Amino acid sequence: xxxxxxxxxxxxxxxxxxxxxxxxxxxxxxxxxxxxxxxxxxxxxxxxxxxxxxxxxxxxxxxxxxxxxxxxxxxxxxxxxxxxxxxxxxxxxxxxxxxxxxxxxxxxxxxxxxxxxxxxxxxxxxxxxxxxxxxxxxxxxxxxxxxxxxxxxxxxxxxxxxxxxxxxxxxxxxxxxxxxxxxxxxxxxxxxxxxxxxxxxxxxxxxxxxxxxxxxxxxxxxxxxxxxxxxxxxxxxxxxxxxxxxxxxxxxxxxxxxxxxxxxxxxxxxxxxxxxxxxxxxxxxxxxxxxxxxxxxxxxxxxxx
Amino acid sequence: xxxxxxxxxxxxxxxxxxxxxxxxxxxxxxxxxxxxxxxxxxxxxxxxxxxxxxxxxxxxxxxxxxxxxxxxxxxxxxxxxxxxxxxxxxxxxxxxxxxxxxxxxxxxxxxxxxxxxxxxxxxxxxxxxxxxxxxxxxxxxxxxxxxxxxxxxxxxxxxxxxxxxxxxxxxxxxxxxxxxxxxxxxxxxxxxxxxxxxxxxxxxxxxxxxxxxxxxxxxxxxxxxxxxxxxxxxxxxxxxxxxxxxxxxxxxxxxxxxxxxxxxxxxxxxxxxxxxxxxxxxxxxxxxxxxxxxxxxxxxxxxxxxxxxxxxxxxxxxxxxxxxxxxxxxxxxxxxxxxxxxxxxx
Lengths: 305, 346
What we know:
By secondary structure, chain A is an all-alpha fold. Helix content of chain A is 73%, strand content 0%. Chain A folds into 2 domains: 21-82, no CATH class; 90-304, MetI-like (MetI-like fold, Orthogonal Bundle).
């Protein structure tokens, strides 16, 4: 990816004196055509992509009276922002408990998945035991098994194992979604670590475990961060397992709780529902803001491998 | 597999009777590999492979919530698919698209959900692909604040689907829809006219498809953008010198080099659109009149809410052939990629 910058700059110099729009060299476009072909469509798409969040935020801070009044005030803005909905959410509902559940389930299953994936990825890429390629392929196939065809039998399994309606039902089932993805991602990272480093360590008498912990993992930290963030986001996002395996109020996660507990049809709940959606999204957006590059690497890495 | 000199030396050094599990563990890569694989394998076998098999088995039983159920062979499938699946399938398509009124042999709701799932997947995926590719091409151009714009584009993908779906639920509200208000303001519809976004069959389908497109476009755009960035700029320089137009450059350089990544991205997109559950469950729960029931939501309704695990499992299992088709598609996409890179294995 770093290669692309350089030749493009030289292209600018080479074709500097040819002023034909068809050539597609961006800097030669007129301001108007750039406006029409780039900024206008991009602006419209961005507006559509971001509008639901604006509307969510605005609803969360609007007074109740303005929520159902589309005639006398402009619904796209409010002059009387209120924190009432967020206050109600945080102090008069179980929302903090749900937030805590979501967080602990996400961290628990992410950590479990990363431990399992590091072992699996290292074994597949570097130990190259008999059948490693087949196992790698099988893990890719596991990535393609969607939760919506698994939740019915899994509900039975979870019930039989006595995990139903406990946080462990989620902590132990989420890794099935996470492990294939993060193994695949880490395999890519481990492949980039020079094999010579490990050979040196082997000759010096290091065990495989020492090599993994002292050499491979420190070098794969960007990959580990990517995998962690992506797994965490997937856990936070997960809905169908949490909806099926959890029934007790105090064990629910944020997405499930908002859908099942808040949507009772009362028109004056909209402020609180949107506040709940907003507060539930914020941790991920903040995390994302700090680790954009890792996030994109995780998302595109798994596809490119 | 040939032994490395190191392993041979170790084996020679260790007396035969002391070749305990520990020594073997340290020197034998198959043993070592087994232990390194164990945690991942345990999770995937216990909670993925076993339930997958169990799901297929359940679909041949009359299991209900709280009862084990007995083997009933193909009865669930006969009940759902009817005796003449092909004519039922064609019948539901004709009924939905052309307003005919064929009597179906099987379960009408099931066939409707199959139709809905295919409609949802085909329409949403095609539009997502078109907009996603267009957005990727836009983002690949030189512009100020590129990094920030790219980061912002991905936000719909970051935010939990359920939570953004709830925002859409409010946007599509019957009485207080901001969309209706905007259309009224623009003069597109009459002042007192209300659009029943999620209550009317056609509108509900369009609304859920729109929400799905909204959520899926960023993923496709950003992944395709990553693919675009690996296309060497010198190819475009050569094309420019040869007098190629913008369209020719797209058609003969960008598109062929992007096919492998398009194949993979679209496989994932089709897979996750086909098995979508969250958006539908939040927005319509399958209504109105089952017009937006997908196979995933129907199986949840039958198995978990209705308690008929066997029947729900049969619906889930009926999704597997479609998923296999998507995976085959992905496989051939990857094969083609190797070919394009000169047949290298890595």
